[in-house]
C-alpha cells in the first residue's frame, strides 16, 4: 500500500504527514507535486496542511485549479480514499468534493492549540478505528477554520451522519461545531485538526494515529 501526499508551493505539513505515515504507521508514501497527474499505484491520497500558493485570495482557492487535483477528483469520485487536513480540508471544500466553506476564525486570530473533539465515525473509512462519541484531543493550527454552510445544508449533513468530528469547545465559530466532514460515500474526509501531529506521545499525544493507520487495518 502506498499513500500519495500532495505538495503545493506553500505546503508545510507534507513532511509531517510523511513522518507520521512512514515513521509511526509504517506505510510507504509518494509525494505528488502540484503539476503531476499520475496517481497510478496509489491506494489513498492526503492533501496536507499549509499555505498553498501563499493562501492568497482565500485558503485553497488557487490550489483547486492545480493539475494534480483533477486526478484527485477522479480518484475520489471512483471511491478512492482522500484525506484533507487543514489547508487540505479548505481545498476539498473549494473544489466541491465537500460542501460548505472555511472562513476566517470568529475572533480573527490564528489558533494553535490542542483541541478536544468528539468523533462520530459513521461510514467514514478514515475513522474506523474510533468508537461512537469517542472524546479525543488533536492540535489545531489555522486562521481560516470557521466552517460555514446554509442551515438546510447543515441539517442534511447531520441527518446523513457526515459531521464526523465536532469541537467540544468550538474555538473558531464553526456552525454546528463542525471540525471534520465526510462525503456520503465515506471515502473523503476533511478536517481542520492535525492528526499527523498527534502520532507520538512526545509531540502531541496519540489520538491521531488510528486515523492515519485506518487504511492499513
Ligand atoms: N495548518 C494549516 O494548514 C493552515 C491552514 C491555512 N493556511 C490557515 O491558516 O487557515
From TrEMBL:
Q: What Enzyme Commission number(s) does the record list for this chain?
A: 6.3.5.3, 3.5.1.2
According to its UniProt entry, the protein's GO biological process terms are: 'de novo' IMP biosynthetic process
Alphabetized UniProt keyword annotations: ATP-binding, Cytoplasm, Glutamine amidotransferase, Hydrolase, Ligase, Nucleotide-binding, Purine biosynthesis
A single Gene Ontology CC term: cytoplasm
Tell me the superkingdom of the source. Bacteria
InterPro entries from the UniProt entry: Class_I_gatase-like, PRibForGlyAmidine_synth_PurQ
Instruction: Note whether Membrane occurs among the keywords.
Output: no
Where in the sequence is the signal peptide annotated? none
Q: Which GO terms describe its molecular function?
A: ATP binding; glutaminase activity; phosphoribosylformylglycinamidine synthase activity
Which residues constitute the catalytic centre? 86, 194, 196
What Pfam families does the record tag this protein with? Answer: GATase_5
Q: Say yes or no: keyword ATP-binding present.
A: yes
Q: Could you tell me what reaction this enzyme catalyses?
A: N(2)-formyl-N(1)-(5-phospho-beta-D-ribosyl)glycinamide + L-glutamine + ATP + H2O = 2-formamido-N(1)-(5-O-phospho-beta-D-ribosyl)acetamidine + L-glutamate + ADP + phosphate + H(+); L-glutamine + H2O = L-glutamate + NH4(+)
What SMART domains does its record include?
GATase_5
Q: In which pathway does it act?
A: Purine metabolism; IMP biosynthesis via de novo pathway; 5-amino-1-(5-phospho-D-ribosyl)imidazole from N(2)-formyl-N(1)-(5-phospho-D-ribosyl)glycinamide: step 1/2
- Localization annotation: Cytoplasm
Summary of the function given for this chain in its UniProt record = Part of the phosphoribosylformylglycinamidine synthase complex involved in the purines biosynthetic pathway. Catalyzes the ATP-dependent conversion of formylglycinamide ribonucleotide (FGAR) and glutamine to yield formylglycinamidine ribonucleotide (FGAM) and glutamate. The FGAM synthase complex is composed of three subunits. PurQ produces an ammonia molecule by converting glutamine to glutamate. PurL transfers the ammonia molecule to FGAR to form FGAM in an ATP-dependent manner.
- Assembly and binders: Part of the FGAM synthase complex composed of 1 PurL, 1 PurQ and 2 PurS subunits.
Which protein, by its recorded name, is this? Answer: Phosphoribosylformylglycinamidine synthase subunit PurQ
Q: What is the primary gene name for this protein?
A: purQ
Amino acid at each position: 500500500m502506498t499513500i500519495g501526499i500532495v505538495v503545493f508551493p506553500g505546503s508545510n505539513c507534507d513532511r509531517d504527514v510523511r513522518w507520521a505515515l512512514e515513521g509511526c504507521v509504517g506505510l510507504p508514501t509518494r509525494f505528488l507535486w502540484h503539476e503531476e497527474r499520475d496517481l497510478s499505484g496509489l491506494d489513498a491520497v492526503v492533501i496536507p496542511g499549509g499555505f498553498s500558493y501563499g493562501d492568497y485570495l482565500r485558503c485553497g482557492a488557487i490550489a483547486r485549479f492545480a493539475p494534480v487535483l483533477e486526478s484527485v477528483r477522479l480518484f475520489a469520485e471512483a471511491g478512492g480514499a482522500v484525506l484533507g487536513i487543514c489547508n487540505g480540508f479548505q481545498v476539498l471544500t473549494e473544489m466541491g468534493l465537500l460542501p460548505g466553506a472555511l472562513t476566517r476564525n470568529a475572533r480573527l486570530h490564528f489558533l494553535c492549540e490542542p483541541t478536544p473533539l468528539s468523533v462520530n465515525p459513521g461510514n467514514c473509512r478514515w475513522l474506523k478505528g474510533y468508537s461512537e462519541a469517542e472524546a479525543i484531543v488533536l492540535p489545531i493550527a489555522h486562521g481560516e477554520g470557521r466552517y460555514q454552510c446554509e442551515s438546510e445544508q447543515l441539517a442534511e449533513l447531520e441527518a446523513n451522519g457526515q459531521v464526523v468530528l465536532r469541537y467540544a469547545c468550538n474555538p473558531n465559530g464553526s456552525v454546528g461545531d463542525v471540525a471534520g466532514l465526510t462525503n456520503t460515500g465515506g471515502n473523503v474526509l476533511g478536517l481542520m485538526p492535525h492528526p499527523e501531529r498527534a502520532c507520538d506521545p512526545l509531540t502531541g499525544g496519540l489520538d491521531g494515529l488510528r486515523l492515519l493507520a485506518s487504511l492499513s487495518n
